[in-house]
Amino acid sequence: MTQGKIIKLTGGLYTVVDEIGKQFELRPIGLFRYHNVRPKVGDDVMFDEDAIKEVLPRRNEMIRPAIANVDYILIVNSCKQPDFSFLLLDRFLALIAKSEIPAIIIITKTDLMNALELNILKQKLAYYQRFCPVFYTASLSLLGIEAIKDLIYKKIIVLSGQTGAGKSSILNAIDPKLNLKTDTISVALGRGKHTTRHVELINICGGWIADTPGFSKLDFEGFEARTFNTLYPDFVRFRDECRFNGCTHTNEPGCRVKELVQSKDILPERYENYLRLYEEIKSQKPIY
User: Angle at the Cα of 92 (from 89 to 96), degrees rounded to 5?
Assistant: First the structure.
């Protein structure tokens, strides 16, 4: 048997690439279905000319999109068209934190903001740099692209973030030969059109990058309100300073996190978003 990596799934058919770059179109053996094992893009597998025979142990995996062995998730958000949203950024960060995969923030279209607007945005994002790297890129420019190239080398990277924020444009800037389809923003709707239809690993800059379908639904199904604060690394570091064990940083007295919000050592907007998301999770109907 030969070892390879799954780089694409289309209609039940897996594309597997071996160590020298040769690709094979295969299906998994029927025994997988019996054991409720479903290979994912990113999986390292053992295969022969007939089928995928074994899925090797995973380092991690994601449910949406269905991809395994991810090194970083790049959260792509635009300054404008569509407008930047801290609530959307915090939603992505919380969802990604649940998967325990490191996140990196990419801010696109910086040239669409004036100098004052961009300076205010960068000041607020400097807070996020305490626990998550932040990179900036401009429209139709290679500015910031070299730093992203360095992240990809020998890694599996997932692109996520706002629909229309420029994920495919980033890939085209990294490697113009890709010529991935991009669409302009629908001004009337204020959002981008979905241009990516399936999960696929693209071999680029000595690594693999997944251009995933745009996210239209970012729910917290399966999350618990009482443990939601554990997904905030900037809150977790102060949990032992709260008066009560298991403090949710909402209504409890003697909460160190709330004190730091008042002193602006914790970004007030991030805390306000935390409360909104906490209430959203708390109001969810339990799943039985």
Answer: 140
